[in-house]
From TrEMBL:
GO molecular function, one term: NADP binding
SUPFAM superfamilies (alphabetical): Aminoacid dehydrogenase-like, N-terminal domain, NAD(P)-binding Rossmann-fold domains
Residue ranges of every copy of the Shikimate dehydrogenase substrate binding N-terminal domain listed in the record: 11-93
Biological or metabolic pathway of the protein: Metabolic intermediate biosynthesis; chorismate biosynthesis; chorismate from D-erythrose 4-phosphate and phosphoenolpyruvate: step 4/7; Aromatic compound metabolism; 3,4-dihydroxybenzoate biosynthesis; 3-dehydroquinate from D-quinate (NAD(+) route)
Name of protein: shikimate dehydrogenase (NADP(+))
Length: 263
């Protein structure tokens, strides 16, 4: 039951109808016996600043989860950013501290790494080929480097984006061997697909799968379908695979911790 003591959480988006965070967080609150609720906020980009001021002013607000199109602009409105949020320039969660300060950070990359570890796959010391250089790739690339992968090769259809991302990651983490390169997986232990290829039926494969060998782990961030054509092809070639849903499963727990759920 929602009472005067219930702590408020939100998800902000435009459009809003598709968001899933309330269905993930409200059961978590119930499971943990926490008096809190997460509701959707439909906010237009031009009203974001006014909305953030309202958030600062609301004493019983715990924080929000952020999705398209607000991830970049809301980062600029925060009083403090975590390392990932600062490097990436975008956030997907924001906590309101009791003094009204807004603290933001990005958890897509952390969720991916935590999901891998939860399944027994390490990223530290690994040579990783990252397919894609969009928003998700950016978060994952910085986190893989932060966790000390040995090599990070970034491949993308639009190669200039891969080059820009590689340069940004290299400048933040000079010890990591970061470069833009081809989709040839030779010399890599792990391949991560962060492109949107595989979401729609009939999408081409994001790489030449005939080059995969059974010592290579192939990881997806696409959750639906569960078995993307890339994962099917990787399995056929004897590769271990890592499913997209693990990133979200672990990210929810990280977000709950960051948002101080139950604290
Ligand atoms: P997200 O926020 O989910 O990462 P995004 O930022 O739009 O979404 O990034 C989508 C990624 O999938 C990009 O790497 C994109 O490549 P481009 O940068 O060249 O656009 C990649 N992608 C999307 N459609 C593709 C296609 N048909 N072939 C190859 N790559 C594609």
């Amino acid at each position: 039951m929602i009472t005067g003591k219930t702590k408020l959480y939100g998800i902000i988006a435009d459009p809003i109808g598709h968001v899933r965070a309330p269905m993930l967080f409200n059961p978590l609150f119930a499971e943990r016996g926490v008096d809190a609720v997460m509701v959707p906020f439909h906010v237009k980009p031009e009203k974001l600043k006014a909305w953030a001021d309202g958030l600062r002013a609301t004493e019983n607000f715990g924080g929000i989860v952020i999705t398209v199109p607000h991830k970049l602009e809301i980062a600029k409105l925060c009083d403090e950013l975590g390392t990932a949020g600062r490097l990436i320039g975008a956030i997907n969660a924001l906590r309101r501290d009791p003094d009204g300060r807004l603290i933001g950070d990005m958890f897509d990359g952390k969720g991916f790494v935590a999901g891998m570890r939860h399944q027994g796959f390490e990223v530290t010391g690994k040579r990783i080929l990252l397919l894609g250089a969009g928003g998700a790739a950016r978060a994952i690339a910085f986190e893989l480097a932060a966790e000390g992968c040995e090599r990070l090769t970034i491949q993308n259809r639009t190669m200039v984006k891969a080059e820009e991302l590689a340069a940004a990651v290299k400048s933040a983490y000079p010890k990591v061997d970061v470069r833009a390169g081809s989709d040839d997986p030779a010399g890599h232990d792990t391949i991560v697909n962060s492109t949107s290829l595989g979401l729609k039926p009939g999408d081409p494969l994001p790489m030449d799968v005939s080059r995969l060998t059974p010592d290579m782990l192939v990881a997806e961030i696409i959750m639906d379908p569960v078995e993307t054509p890339l994962l099917q092809a990787a399995k056929q070639r004897g590769c271990p695979v890592h499913y997209g849903r693990h990133m979200l499963d672990q990210q929810i727990l990280l977000l709950a911790d960051f948002l101080r759920v139950g604290k």
